[in-house]
């Protein structure tokens, strides 16, 4: 399973040729896991009611990551690895711990996150 970071979802929703077909393939093959904070970010950036509806439909139809104490785990992970000083925030820490807990990979366009993912062996696509 794959967690699409906000940056990838944005490119998909903009119909960016480089990302659209790849994401559509993953969605069609039920390989995408939804993470609540990512969809919260997407909804925060929605420009109109139609975008809210589209994002909400994806949220409702996708399997969700299973997390228990996810934000606590993310905080501990961030603290232990001193991620704040590396420019990696709590949302990215949450995504990493969610990926680990769900045996998933992360696809992100964020350079700081990708640098950390390489070290953590949760490889970017």
Structure report:
There is one protein chain. Helices cover 60% and strands 6% of the residues. By secondary structure, the chain is mostly helical. It has a domain of 84 residues. The model has no long low-confidence stretch (mean pLDDT 93).
At a glance:
The protein is mainly α. Helices cover 60% and strands 6% of the residues.
Blueprint (SSEs and pairs):
Elements: E1 2-4, H1 6-13, H2 17-28, E2 32-33, H3 36-44, H4 49-61, H5 70-80, H6 90-101, E3 105-107, H7 111-120
Parallel strand pairs: 1-2, 1-3
Keyword list:
125 residues, three-stranded parallel beta sheet, mainly alpha, 7 helices, single chain
Helix content percent band: 55-70%
Beta-sheet strand percentage? 5-15%
The chain-level mean pLDDT equals 93
Structural class computed from helices and strand pairing: mainly alpha
Q: Which strands sit side by side, in order, in the main sheet?
A: 2-1-3
Number of helices in the DSSP assignment? 7
Total number of beta strands: 3
- Pattern of helices and strands: EHHEHHHHEH
Terminal Cα span = 11 Å
Overall geometry comes to globular
Low-confidence stretches: none
The biggest sheet amounts to: 3 strands, parallel
What radius of gyration results from the CA coordinates? 14 Å
């Amino acid at each position: 399973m794959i967690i699409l970071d906000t940056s990838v979802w944005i490119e998909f929703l903009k119909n960016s040729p480089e990302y659209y077909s790849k994401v559509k393939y993953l969605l069609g093959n039920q390989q995408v896991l939804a993470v609540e904070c990512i969809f919260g970010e997407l909804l925060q950036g929605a420009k109109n009611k139609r975008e809210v509806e589209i994002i909400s439909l994806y949220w409702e139809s996708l399997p969700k990551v299973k997390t228990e104490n996810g934000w606590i785990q993310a905080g501990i992970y961030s603290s232990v690895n001193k991620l704040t000083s590396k420019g990696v925030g709590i949302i990215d820490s949450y995504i990493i711990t969610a990926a680990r807990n769900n045996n998933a990979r992360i696809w992100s366009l964020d350079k700081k996150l990708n640098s950390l993912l390489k070290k953590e062996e949760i490889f970017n696509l």
